[in-house]
Each structure stands twice: as C-alpha cells, then as structure tokens.
Design goal:
With about 300 residues, the chain is mainly beta. Helix content is about 5%, strand content about 50%.
C-alpha cells in the first residue's frame, strides 16, 4: 500500500485557473497563516518571467490566488548581475516571523541561496544571500544547540548534488558545512536535495526530499523520506531506499519539464492528515496526503 496517496482532484491548481495570464504554476512554499493554508506560488508568465503570488485555502484543496504579486524588491547584490531569477520558495515560521529560503539564479555567476522575511506575505525583505553554487535551502523551525540550521544542496559543475547542513548565529553568516549522508539509490544517484521544512517528531526530524536519476531520455524526479537526528541533523537515523512518490500520472509526466514531482512544503491539517504540495512537470500544483505517523513508521520499518 503506498505511503502517499494522490488527491483525486489533482492537479489542484493549474495555470488556466489563475486570475491572470500564466504559463505555469508550481513548486509552492507552504505555511499556516491566519487560520488558513497559504501557498507561495512560483508562477511563470507568458513572457516566461517569474513572479510569486499568494494563494489561500480553508480546506487545503481549493485555493484563492491573489491578483497581485508579492512586494519583494531586488537586493543590491542581485542588482549586480545581468539578471536575477528567483525560484522555489520554502517558508519557515519561527518566533512570530516567516522566513523564506529560495534560490536565485544570478547571471552570469550561478545559483545562490537567499533568505528573506515577512510578517504579512505582502512585503518581503531579503536578509542574506550565499555565494554560488547552491540551492534548495530549507530552514529548521527552531534553533538547534543555539544556532540556526538549514539544509541545502550545493551543486556540482555537472548539475548533480546532494544534501548538506550549515549553521549560523544570525541568518547572515553561514558555515560549518556537514554532508547529510542520505543513501545513494537507483532513483537518487544523480542528486538529492531538501524538500519540505523538517517536521519535529520524537523519533527525529522528518524530512521529505527529492531525488533524481538519469534515464535514456530524461532526468526523472522522485520524493523520498528520512529521519535526521534531533541534536545533529547531519546524522541520518533512517533513510529507506524506497521512494514515496514517482512521476507516473499524466499531470506529472507531461509539461514544461517532463517526469517531475518536486515539493517545497507540507502542512499538517486539523484532521491529522499531512498535505504535501508538489509541482507536477514544472507546470501545475498537485497534492499528496499521508500522516506524520505513517511516514515515520515507513522510515523506521525500511531503514
């Protein structure tokens, strides 16, 4: 029996449903805000420019999308490049503030990690940005041993990469990198990287991540799950060699980038379900459901 179940109304959000012209909508960050489920949508316009809009929902399935994009001015560092292309925002609530980790493709230098903050999901201010080449950062929802910790995926020159941790006292200066030794499997032998914000459980930090492998024609994406040590998240306690989701449905296999399931956020619902929001084929928003208990059990049973 699959540990994740696709929602029968998938895809739950498509470009055609947006209140403006759009080419794609995918890879959303997720948070609870003012009693609702909030998605921070990555949207590409029909000019192929990226903008970010907020969507909110009472049930986590049917979303209302804001007509206006968020207000997030370019930083002085981003202005130094020929072009700054932001993508894949992940939202971490901490101490009354929402922190947003995202990637920035800074032409001509490569991909960097940026961290911004917001209190209202209207106005955003950038806190810091890393050197290239790094991406897919997620910030833990609490300090560990007195420090901020993030998962990230440094990128090799050939585009491959794997998950690491780094730490900071101030969210600006990051260091002490450590590899997170998630097993190299036949479905994640090209890269693995963070997906959702880690969920704290008694058995460890539950992390839902992405992995990819190359086939004769494409790079295929999968989702996996693992448990990380509560005091040292660079230590893997359990990491099944089985994936929890693969690109199989038409809405995951056909689109801007074929054969992609890619998550940037999960949210625990009032009924105990864990909603995992993911991009299908870099074109549309989809939903898979499970529970934290089921995922933790899957990790422990198959470690």
């Amino acid at each position: 029996m699959p540990v994740l179940k696709r929602h029968p109304k998938n895809p739950i959000l498509t470009p055609q449903e947006l209140p403006f012209d759009a080419y794609t909508v995918f890879n959303a960050g997720t948070a609870r805000y003012k009693g609702k489920i909030l998605l921070l949508l990555r949207i590409e316009t029909t000019e192929r420019k990226t903008v970010f809009h907020v969507a909110t929902s009472s049930d986590g399935i049917k979303f209302k999308v804001s007509k206006d994009p968020i207000n997030y001015p370019l930083s002085e560092l981003e202005k130094l490049g020929n072009r700054a292309h932001r993508f894949d925002m992940r939202i971490t609530p901490m101490d009354g503030t929402f922190y947003v980790c995202h990637a920035v493709w800074l032409d001509p230098w490569g991909s960097c990690i940026a961290i911004a903050k917001t209190d209202d999901f209207v106005n955003f201010k950038q806190i810091s940005m890393s050197v290239p080449s790094n991406r897919n950062a997620v910030l833990f929802p609490e300090k560990i041993n007195g420090k901020y910790i993030r998962l990230e995926r440094p990128q090799n020159i050939d585009g491959s990469g794997s998950t690491w941790t780094s730490e900071s006292n101030d969210l600006i200066h990051w260091g002490n990198p450590r590899p997170v030794k998630i097993p190299c499997t036949d479905w994640s032998n090209r890269k693995n990287g963070p997906g959702c914000i880690p969920i704290k459980t008694a058995e460890g930090w539950l992390e839902i991540y992405h992995g990819t492998c190359m086939t004769a024609s494409t790079e295929n994406y999968y989702l996996g799950a693992c448990l990380l040590d509560l005091k040292d998240p660079s230590k893997v306690l359990a990491a099944p060699r089985k994936f929890i989701l693969a690109a199989e449905e038409t809405y995951e296999c056909v689109g801007q980038v074929p054969n992609v399931v890619f998550t940037g956020g999960a949210c625990e619902m009032d009924d105990g379900k864990l909603n995992i929001y993911y991009g299908g084929a870099d074109t549309r928003i989809c939903l898979a459901q499970t529970t934290v208990k089921e995922l933790v059990g899957f990790c422990l049973k198959n470690k």
